[in-house]
From TrEMBL:
Membrane topology (UniProt): Multi-pass membrane protein
Keywords (A to Z) from UniProt: Glycoprotein, Lysosome, Membrane, Transmembrane, Transmembrane helix
Xref: SUPFAM superfamilies: Tetraspanin
Family the entry assigns: Belongs to the tetraspanin (TM4SF) family.
Highest taxon of source: Eukaryota
Name assigned to this protein: Tetraspanin
Complex and partners: Interacts with SLC19A2. Interacts with NTRK1/TRKA.
Gene3D superfamilies (alphabetical): Tetraspanin
CDD domains with a match to the protein in the record: uroplakin_I_like_LEL (cd03156)
Main function: Structural component of specialized membrane microdomains known as tetraspanin-enriched microdomains (TERMs), which act as platforms for receptor clustering and signaling. Participates thereby in diverse biological functions such as cell signal transduction, adhesion, migration and protein trafficking. Regulates neuronal differentiation in response to NGF by facilitating NGF-mediated activation of NTRK1/TRKA receptor tyrosine kinase and subsequent downstream signaling pathways. Plays a role in the inhibition of TNFalpha-induced apoptosis.
InterPro entries: Tetraspanin/Peripherin, Tetraspanin_animals, Tetraspanin_CS, Tetraspanin_EC2_sf
PROSITE patterns attached to this UniProt entry: TM4_1
Lineage, opening ranks: Eukaryota, Metazoa, Chordata, Craniata, Vertebrata
Organism: Rhipidura dahli
Gene: Tspan1
Amino acid sequence: SPGAKMGCSTFIKVMMILFNLAIFLSGGTLLGVGIWVKVDGESFLKIFGALSSSILQVVHVSYLLIAIGAILLVIGFLGCYGAQKESKCLLMMFFSVVLIIFIAEVVAAVVALVFTGLAETLLTGLVTPLLKEKYGVNETFTDIWNVTMTKVHCCGLNNYTDFNNSYFYETHHSYPRQCCDMLEPCNSTLAAQKDVEGCFKQILEEIKTNAGVAGGVAAGIAALEIAAMAVSMYLYCQLDKK
């Protein structure tokens, strides 16, 4: 009956508005956190310093949060306002943005599976020079790595050789004590004997352990995106009938 159809359409419209309002608020929160990290990175580090995200640089984290927050704000606004105003143009824009993100996620997942080795090489190429230059020089960077190496029981990114020709080694004539199971002085003989694993391998193990959870979350997000696209297309088609 037309009444039931109208009721169903109104229900879907209200759900679409509420769903996108939640996305909009999440985007605003992430954007706020991102700006805070960008402006006040020091205090952010002190609070979240022990996290393994510390291997990334804080500035990059802030840009990522700002970008994700901004995208969520745009998606939330388009979906919410488009459903409220029954605007075909905004609903189509919403559908297009979500579709682009969905395709990007699928491509990223495929790339992650295919190029894990490449990512390892890339990370080694980026982080190892940072360790050589900044460890023992930059206090925040050094503290983060010390906490990470102590908690994860690891040394450098690959192993103790990451500190060869580094500022720290040239200054102290020894490796960080985490490379020798906290024994000092940590010379090359003891470091080779103890053979403490690199943090990358340890973090990779941690990632693999949590891969199931990450996969479940990714599948959930993908399902939400498909649902959002289906609902926006349904509302778009309903407007075509009017």
